[in-house]
């Protein structure tokens, strides 16, 4: 059906125009005239209805081809349909049609887009760098609480024998010089057959039994333990945790919730710089405690053989990998060795053997199953 | 028609879409830009703008629809869901993993399962509330729709009916789908009058059986194809030819399988919508939806080609294409008494379809 004002008489004043409206109470359409007194008052008159209200009562609702629709603040269901080409005096008094939303309409599309883009880039930069500067500033006490909440006692999967515990404590004391017991890194050997070691939130370091079995000397273990203690002391763990937390927020939709947790923590990576810092920390502590770095050098040399990346391997690969190349690390440890005097052994043969047999000898330890 | 006391029609389509893609592009492309530079936050306002355009270019009988929803309320819905459900869900999965790490695998897993079950339930509630939200923001002649139910009961129905539907090898899925459609629409209203829906699973069951027959038909067909390929290959190049011919046959089989299954799904949904829209009534109005399987295939192929050939930018036009498809094929017949069509008295939620948004689903 044709719109009503198309059939109405030509307007004789600029203060009167054809209008259609719905009162919001029923679906009946009212067609008549809108009278504007030139100030704040509006009168709608039709054979079927009559309404008076203030211009300020109107709110923009919608646009259609050649029409603008308003509602009334006092009656949100009310709909007034006016032609888009209304007298300029009235148009200036009515609320302006909204296009993109209030902020963007005020700024203009181009300027708003530019401002948003800059703000978003800053937010992204902040989000990406936050772990690096926020991590070290989180109090160690908080980290310990987070760690305890996440890991607890690791479900009884940590091996204990009196002799083994003593040997581990002795090894730890040499690479972690903290005096008071509360700040001390807690180290354990986990009953898990993997050649790996992790630093967990809350100053907890785990060597996996697979790694202990593979070690050919206590100096190797001292190197690995010192490296993990370095991650704890340099606050890399909190940084990595925050980074993973950020990732899990970003991937919230894709994450099933089962995949992260302990195994996610074990797999969480440190930056290459963090690995280098942890290595430097380990070498400094080993130098202080007169532990030969050659054991750690042997360990990384063996890793390099296994991964078939050698000391002469392309540097690009080493740079790309999250860890510095094992060959490069072996070299750094070897270079740190002094020529004289000779290093005393870090543990006696009996102590080293106690570490090796710790998991086999502990009758209470739980098997490390994934489920 | 100005007094609007009585209105009957039959000749033209009750629903007419008068938009064009050039006008829509002037909305969708700036939306895309703003959504990108706000890291996605603008998408709520973008959605509201798109709907205002699509609704206002859609005529029902003699008056255009109006979308009265705002971007701000969609955003509010999203934030509410994040706080009410996202944070607790995050907490529960955290506790569940901490329990598993401590060796309480059973308890931890049970908690994880409970979290998944609650997501299942909320998925049902979300489907209900999305439809309620859309009806409550859709206006025609100043009148809106809505529902007196908040959808919590529907969430329970959704859970058990869907579970029962899957149990006997999925055989009862047509029943659960039709039953849930009836239940959901029968709780909706427009103005003072409720919708009613009494679709029956029998109408769509034959189409649904295609899912079960298809693998056999396709498998037998595929074996024949592979065999013929091998024979042809043998004819051309002896032993090596057999392997090559068999491989070509196998690739053909896999393609055939996926395309065939997709086609069956489209055929089923085409029939489902025809049946269910046809079984839905409002006062004296009867609805019908006349899109054939071929229409759906054309729509989806068009979607795919549009997205591929515009390197993804065409994605922003899909809502336009789908709305136009929907409105082109939707019909209504019957009588509306305008003076008895008074305003809806249902309560409206002040926030948008946040729940559905969070689960990323469509309303219908």
TrEMBL record, chain A:
Its cofactor is Zn(2+). Residues 17-63 form the DUF7092 domain. Binds 1 zinc ion per subunit. One of its GO terms (biological process) is proteolysis involved in protein catabolic process. Keywords: Hydrolase, Membrane, Metal-binding, Metalloprotease, Protease, Transmembrane, Transmembrane helix, Zinc. The keyword Protease applies. InterPro entries: DUF7092, Mito/Outer_Membr_Metalloprot, Peptidase_M48. Residues 177-335 form the Peptidase M48 domain. One of its GO terms (molecular function) is metal ion binding. Pfam families: DUF7092 (PF23368), Peptidase_M48 (PF01435). Gene3D superfamilies: Metalloproteases ('zincins'), catalytic domain. The chain crosses the membrane at residues 112-134. It comes from the Bacteria. One of its GO terms (cellular component) is membrane. Belongs to the peptidase M48 family. This is M48 family metalloprotease. It comes from Qipengyuania citrea. The lineage of its organism: Bacteria, Pseudomonadati, Pseudomonadota, Alphaproteobacteria, Sphingomonadales.
Automatic annotation (TrEMBL), chain B:
The chain crosses the membrane at residues 27-46, 67-90, 110-130, 151-175, 209-232, 244-270, 299-320. InterPro entries: DUF898 (IPR010295). Pfam families: DUF898 (PF05987). Keywords: Membrane, Transmembrane, Transmembrane helix. This is DUF898 family protein. It comes from Qipengyuania citrea.
């Amino acid at each position: 059906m044709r719109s009503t004002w198309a059939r109405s008489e030509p307007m004789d004043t600029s203060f009167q125009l054809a209008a259609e409206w719905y009162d919001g109470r029923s679906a009946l359409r009212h067609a008549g005239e809108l009278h504007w007194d030139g100030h704040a008052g509006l009168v709608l008159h039709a054979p079927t209805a009559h309404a008076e209200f203030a211009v300020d009562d109107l709110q923009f609702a919608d646009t259609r081809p050649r029409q603008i629709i308003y509602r009334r603040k006092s009656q949100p269901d009310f709909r007034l349909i006016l032609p888009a080409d209304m007298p300029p005096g009235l148009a200036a008094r009515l609320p302006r049609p909204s296009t993109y939303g209030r902020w963007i309409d005020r700024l203009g599309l181009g300027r708003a887009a530019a401002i948003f883009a800059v703000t978003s880039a800053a937010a992204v930069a902040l989000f990406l760098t936050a772990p690096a500067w926020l991590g070290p500033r989180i109090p160690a006490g908080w980290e310990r609480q987070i760690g305890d909440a996440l890991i607890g006692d690791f479900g009884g999967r940590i091996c204990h024998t009196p002799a083994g515990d003593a040997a581990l404590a002795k090894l730890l004391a040499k690479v972690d010089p903290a005096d008071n017991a509360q700040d001390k890194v807690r180290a354990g050997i986990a009953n898990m057959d993997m050649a790996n070691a992790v630093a967990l939130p809350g100053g907890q370091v785990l060597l996996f039994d697979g790694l202990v079995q593979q070690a050919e000397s206590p100096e190797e273990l001292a190197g690995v333990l010192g490296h993990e203690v370095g991650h704890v002391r340099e606050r890399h763990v909190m940084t990595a945790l925050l980074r993973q937390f950020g990732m899990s927020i970003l991937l919230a939709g894709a994450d099933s919730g089962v995949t992260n947790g302990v195994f996610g923590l074990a797999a969480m990576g440190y930056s290459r710089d963090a690995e280098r810092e942890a290595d430097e920390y380990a070498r400094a502590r080993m130098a202080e405690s007169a532990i030969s770095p050659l054991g750690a050098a042997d360990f990384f040399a063996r890793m390099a053989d296994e991964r078939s990346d050698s000391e002469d391997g392309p540097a690009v690969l080493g740079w790309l990998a999250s860890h510095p190349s094992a060959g490069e690390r072996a070299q750094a440890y070897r270079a740190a060795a002094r020529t004289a005097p000779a290093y005393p052994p870090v543990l006696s043969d009996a102590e080293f053997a106690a570490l090796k047999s710790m998991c086999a000898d502990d009758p209470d330890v739980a098997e490390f199953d994934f489920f | 028609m100005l007094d609007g006391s009585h209105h009957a029609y039959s000749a033209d389509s009750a629903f007419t879409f008068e938009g064009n893609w050039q006008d829509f592009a002037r909305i969708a492309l700036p939306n895309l830009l703003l959504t990108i530079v706000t890291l996605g936050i603008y998408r709520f306002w973008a959605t509201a703008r798109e709907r205002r355009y699509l609704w206002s270019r859609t005529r029902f009988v003699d008056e255009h629809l109006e979308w009265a929803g705002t971007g701000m309320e969609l955003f509010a819905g999203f934030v509410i869901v994040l706080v009410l459900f996202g944070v607790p869900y995050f907490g529960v999965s955290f506790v569940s993993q901490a329990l598993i790490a401590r060796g309480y695998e059973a308890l931890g897993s049970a908690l994880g399962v409970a979290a998944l079950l609650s997501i299942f339930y909320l998925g049902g509630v979300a489907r209900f509330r999305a439809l309620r939200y859309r009806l409550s923001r859709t206006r025609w002649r100043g009148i809106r729709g809505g529902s007196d139910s908040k959808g919590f009961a529907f969430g329970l129905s959704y859970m058990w009916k869907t579970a029962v539907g899957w149990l006997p090898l999925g055989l009862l899925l047509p029943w659960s789908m039709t039953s849930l459609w009836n239940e959901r629409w029968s709780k909706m209203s427009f103005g003072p009058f409720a919708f009613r829906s009494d679709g029956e699973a029998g109408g769509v069951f034959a189409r649904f059986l295609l899912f079960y027959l298809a693998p056999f038909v396709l498998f037998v067909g595929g074996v024949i194809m592979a065999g013929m390929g091998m024979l042809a290959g043998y004819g051309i190049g002896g032993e090596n030819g057999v392997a090559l011919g068999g491989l070509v046959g196998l690739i053909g089989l896999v393609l055939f399988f996926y395309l065939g299954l997709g086609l069956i799904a489209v055929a089923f949904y085409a029939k489902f919508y025809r049946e269910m829209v046809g079984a839905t009534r409002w006062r004296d109005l009867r609805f019908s939806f006349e899109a054939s399987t071929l229409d759906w295939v054309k729509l989806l192929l068009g979607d795919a080609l549009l997205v591929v050939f515009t390197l993804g930018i065409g994605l922003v036009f899909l809502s336009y294409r789908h709305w136009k498809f929907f409105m082109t094929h939707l019909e209504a017949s019957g009588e509306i008494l305008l003076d008895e069509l008074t305003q809806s008295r249902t309560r409206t939620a002040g926030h948008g379809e946040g729940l559905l948004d969070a689960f990323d689903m469509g309303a219908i």
